[in-house]
Amino acid sequence: MSWGLANEAAYCIRWLSAFELPGPTLLADLLELNDGLTMAEVSPVSLSGTWYGAANRLCPVITGAAMSDNALQLQSGNVFVLQNITQPLLLVPFAGSAALFLDTPVAIKWQGVSLTTDGRVLSIDGDQETLNVEFADTVACTVEASLADRINPIVRGELDDACKKRLSVFANRTFAPATEESRRLGAG
Amino acid sequence: MKAATDTTPVARRDPATVMRLARLGSMHQSRLSFMRVLTRRMHRENWRFSRPNFDIDDNGVGYAVYCAHSPQNTYSLVAFAHDLPVEKRSDRVIAQAWDATFTLFDGVPDTDDINRLSQNIPLQEAGRVTQNELSVSRANRSVRLWEHVVSSLCAGQQPDRQQVAAVGYLMRTTAVYGSGKLGAADRELIADRPEFAAPFQAEMLSVFLTRAFVRDLVQHMADARGGARSVKLDPDIARAMGIGNSTGLGMAPFILNHPQLFNNWILAREEAIARVCNVVTASTDEIALFHELLARTVLSVKLWHTEHPVQLEKLASLQADLAALKTCVSATDLTCNHPWNRLYLWVENNLGIDAQECLASLMLEPYGYLVDELETHMADNTANTFHINGAMPIDQLSSLLQKHYYWALDIDWNARKNYARAWYVSAEKLEPRLGERFKEPIANYEQPLAPARDAARLFASLRNWPAESTLAEFLLHHPEHRHTVRRVQIISHAPYAEIRDNTISADMLPIDMLRCKLAFFGATHFDPRSDRWVRICMYANAPYPEELSNHDADYWPYPQLEESGS
Question: Could you give the dihedral angle defined by the CA atoms of residues A183, A176, B136 and B265, in that order, rounded to the nearest 10 degrees?
Answer without folding.
Answer: 100
